[in-house]
Amino acid sequence: MEVVKGSYKVKLGLAQMLKGGVIMDVTNAEQAKIAEKAGACAVMALERVPADIRKEGGVARMADPIKVKEIMRAVSIPVMAKVRIGHFVEAQVLEALGVDFIDESEVLTPADPFQHIDKHKFKVPFVCGATNLGEALRRINEGAAMIRTKGEAGTGNVIEAVRHVRLIKQEIEALKKMNAKQLAKEAKEYRVPVKLVQQVRMLGRLPVVNFAAGGIATPSDAAMMMQLGCDGVFVGSGIFKSAEPEKRARAIVEATTHYNNPEIIAEVSENLGEAMKGQDIAELKERLQERGW
Amino acid sequence: MPKVGVLAMQGAFIEHIKMLKKCGVKTMEVRLPKELAKVQALILPGGESTSNRKLLEESGLFKPLAERIKQGMPIFGTCAGAILLAKTVDSKPGLFQAIDISVKKNAYGRQIDSFEAELKVKGFPKPFHGVFIRAPIIEQAGKNVDVLSEFEGRAVLAKQNNVLVATFHPELTDDARIHRLFLEMIK
Lengths: 293, 187
Fold this sequence. Notes:
The complex is a heterodimer of chains A (293) and B (187).
Chain A: E1 3-5, H1 8-18, E2 22-26, H2 29-38, E3 42-45, H3 50-56, H4 65-74, E4 79-84, H5 88-97, E5 101-105, E6 126-130, H6 133-141, E7 146-149, H7 159-176, H8 180-190, H9 194-203, E8 209-211, H10 219-227, E9 233-235, H11 237-240, H12 245-257, H13 262-269
Parallel strand pairs in A: 2-3, 2-9, 3-4, 4-5, 5-6, 6-7, 7-8
Chain B: E1 3-7, H1 13-22, E2 26-30, H2 33-36, E3 41-44, H3 49-58, H4 62-70, E4 75-78, H5 80-85, E5 86-89, E6 92-93, E7 99-104, E8 115-119, E9 128-132, E10 137-141, E11 146-151, E12 154-160, E13 163-166, H6 177-183
Parallel strand pairs in B: 1-2, 1-3, 3-4, 4-13, 5-7
Antiparallel strand pairs in B: 5-6, 7-10, 8-9, 11-12, 12-13
């Protein structure tokens, strides 16, 4: 009997299983266990959370394999890890380690000034960030099985994630009003096959799972992204940079499930202690969202 | 016409809703006990079983759902849903213990070992396309469990009384035959 592994279908399939869930950044086994216990549907294994990467500066790279392995051993939920934009060897290393999903991420320092990773070459699925429809479609065309908004990572400020979701929505709405000629022109501008643009127009949404990421710090932030139509949320620095990570992690998971139920969001938002301090976008020296081509 | 709910805590619940609509039945997402009360059957979708377990317990849905399953409400669990319904999971007691099977989580390996394969299903003249995503393995099935499909010598689709489980994802295909099989369990 023929068995097919690593197909695009099973890559998309794992992304579909993550929907309605919260993916949490963790830097060690202990945090991974806290995240799993709180109900995270996956964890992102990192050496430093984005807020620390931002603060400490320097070149941010793929995590030490020992760290990734430690986290993989600690939990039964899927483990994701980040590689630098375009760094296909870091991706080969993570695939060899057996991580369940690779995030080709602007949070790390980009490694290729011209192109992103050819993700079709891998058996492991990829998630990539996007700030607009063209970026999302280029990543999908390269083989990404999941898209997330870039937002502005490490700021605890949700405004950029909201901006990216709204922008992508508006652009999809605009596609619906276009004729064949205009669609072809749009596809050219996006640098993707017209077939992909036609598919988005027909579906009225991205053809892959689309999570929110970048700046989500509270249960209400998470629920807002869900009400705006995202399929789930990533929370990076927002949990382990807050006063009471366990409680906050649980509350964000609850709010993501019951995103249409303000009574429950109110209940779980009580007494969470201080959220991460956060930053105004205008005060940033560098915007991570501008990385990627 | 009966209304079939889909547990909508976390996971691929929308795919099940679409499949049920394709079968022409009324359906709704279930997150709260008052929503459970409105349905005559329920699907537990794929997703992460630990996440679903946690959310079930905190939403107050666990007890009324366990009660409904005991009373004979037809229930269908796919992948993580099957894990929640199993008697034992990784040698520990399962959540609902509604079907006499022992499962092992992520037993084929990690995501790179997720796979697609054609399955022979009892009563289906043509094979069913099985999509297995970080799937569990049913290591043992009790003698009262009706094994409807096997892969590599182990049950992947099984039924006992009002409980149907699949370790794969029929909701990720266009083939509604297994959903119809479940709908036949509603009287």
